[in-house]
Design goal:
Helix content of chain A: 55-70%
Radius of gyration of chain A: 17 Å
Largest interface: A-B, 73 and 73 residues
Distance between the termini of chain A: 21 Å
Oligomer: homotetramer
Low-confidence stretches of chain A: none
Number of strands of chain A: 0
Number of helices of chain A: 5
Largest sheet of chain A: none
Chain lengths: 113, 113, 113, 113
């Protein structure tokens, strides 16, 4: 991921796009792309499998969300992998296997990570 | 990122949460977390700098979006880094520096990655 | 709805909140509330019926989305009922019953209104 | 609004679309349309005025959000105007003018309705 981040920042800088990439507008972009990703699942049953057309479209939208996420992490001086690892560690304690096994929303929040 | 993905899948599997983590519900989760991220910027001017309180909250929400994104990529058998690199390569051609330098939305789509 | 809009604008003005209610921040608010609404359905099967707890929560979130929608319509000088009626008229032509009956996404867009 | 709701339900029923319009998918649709609305404001300064092009596009997206909101209210047996009026009444008490005048997020939630 280090190389991806490097390439992304070069891409942004050589187009002089940093001035548009303020944190608030990047947060908006993440939401807009997340909705384009969600739109791929509209009107479909939960259990419908991912076929190759959907998989292609998903690759595109997942990429968009990730790229904006990386730009926001850069703008806010956040180490995204470290933040994610920390969150996972916290949630191992928050959701002990004994009370979470096979259960959705074990602490009534909708969080399942 | 490989290690993060490994730890995340172990975390999910040892809690027997795969059955909840179908692609559609993961897509929903990504949107919900993206909105929690966006909420941090509500009613704030674009140029307001990121202070340490906001940075802490951002770390949490960015982590949430990434973790669900990784779970969706796993469920849809997508190599997320490869997908992002491909998207960036495509956009280097789509947004030549000569026509994109310093310009927002150079091809009228709202995409700026 | 006229009375609701009147009361809402009085509520806003007597708190001197118009300055915060610029169109962009209202658009953000609508998305944030829409995600809180969506969160009520996370991890639930499509066919799970709406019980009274969910109905209560839904009333709250639907109200939030509508109130911000009305504030945005006011800020952008839009007659919301007229706009909705026009959209419905256009879609009666766009989705003739003969080609749309019982069919999801009849024109490949995800629109079903 | 009564007439709009009547026309909308006739439109839906004569196309036999009720089976697609379960509450969860309607909640998704509201989020997707809310993001299309938000996308109109991407990369724009907060204070940029609404010109006629943006106003046209906004009419379309505001209409989409409202129509899906009305379908969801119908599916969940919710009186949307009553719910919004109740919410406004509650918030008159929650945000007294004396403590809210000219202040954003007076109770630290991001709610400003």
């Amino acid at each position: 991921m280090e190389q991806l981040i490097k390439d992304l920042l070069v891409f942004r800088n050589e187009r002089n796009w940093q001035k548009f990439h303020n944190p608030k507008d990047l947060a908006i972009a993440i939401s807009v792309e997340a909705a384009e990703l969600l739109e791929l699942f509209q009107w479909r049953p939960n259990e419908q499998p991912v076929d190759s057309v959907l998989q292609n479209n998903l690759e595109n939208e997942i990429a968009d969300v990730l790229l904006y996420l990386l730009l926001l992490a850069d703008a806010a001086k956040i180490d995204i992998l470290f933040a994610a690892q920390q969150k996972l560690e916290r949630n191992k304690l928050r959701f002990p296997i004994s009370t979470s096994y096979g259960i959705a929303k074990p602490d009534d929040s909708s969080e399942m990570i």
